[in-house]
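Table 4 source record.
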Amino acid sequence: MTTTTTTAPSTPRTTPLTRLTALGRAELTLLVRNRTAVFVALLMPAAMIMAMKSTFEKIDLKSTGLTVAGAALIGGIGTVLVQAVYMNMVAAYVARREELVLKRLRTGEVTDGEILAGTALPAGALALAQSAVIIVTGTAFFGLDAPERPELLVAGLLLGVVLLTVLAAITSVITRTVQTAQLTTLPLFLVSMMGSGLFVPLEIFPDRLATVCELLPLTGVMTLIRAGWLGTSDGTDLLGAALTGLVWTAAAVFAVQRWFRWDPRR
């Protein structure tokens, strides 16, 4: 007698790309269903640009090398990054944590980094798309030139998306509910608006205050974006801006690995 053994067909393993795609698609569906988040992400940056424009018209920008339109639109890009990525992702991470979604995902094949990145993909893509619209609008209707150094502009945008995503993960640690996310995100929002060149150009600050503001999390990102579009910074400033953004990103990644909460705060 001869015996034969049959082996069950092996189930093909997923790849990081397919896992990220699946997570991103699911998160995009949830984002579209959240009308409040969509409203804030789409309409608030436009309202902030108009507010900035009226404010900059009252400020002497001659020493900054910026026009009113240029300062307002650059600030608009920063606002998009903060609101569409940071503020939106804090609420998203808290909601997924409290609903046990993050805990269930960890029992599967997907890694921790893929869970956090996949959840942030739609918000990051939305911020990049809105930034592109602002750039096209500024070039076509506000008399601004096309980006002088597109590679710096893209690098600044990508660094901003990554940095604010990681900072959102950190902020979610101290955020108990989705409702309190509006409070826990407020400090970084206000500090960035006033001290990172979004609402007030750093050139009009006293030298000591401007030096301190250059060390804020989003200042390096905004310096790269402004230099990429308007070409208003030299090599030393760009190197310092890039290092500042990378150091904040590395510190935030370390903090996420050490303190991020996967279980509900109940």
